[in-house]
Amino acid sequence: MTAVVIAAPMLIVGMGAGLLIGLLQALTQIQDQTVAFVPKVLAMAAVMIACMPWLMSRMVEFTRNVFENAGSP
């Protein structure tokens, strides 16, 4: 569940950017793969940088819980 929560912001932005770029490509009839790839990667990288403090706190919390519960049955 933690992996889903951590990956969700980037995947949602990638999906939204892909939808907008696909619509733009359909309207302009430009069917080049790099036109779709570069903006999606840039949007996902921007979201990853913007969400990095939150993502790191979630990962540290998860790791702490794993080590705390490692010895319990």
TrEMBL record:
It is a multi-pass membrane protein. Its main location: membrane. Keywords: Cell membrane, Membrane, Transmembrane, Transmembrane helix. The chain crosses the membrane at residues 36-55. It is found in: Cell membrane. One of its GO terms (biological process) is protein secretion. It holds the Pfam family Bac_export_3. The keyword Cell membrane applies. It comes from the Bacteria. One of its GO terms (cellular component) is plasma membrane. InterPro entries: Bac_export_3 (IPR002191). Belongs to the FliQ/MopD/SpaQ family. This is Bacterial export protein FliQ, family 3. It comes from Rhodopirellula maiorica SM1.
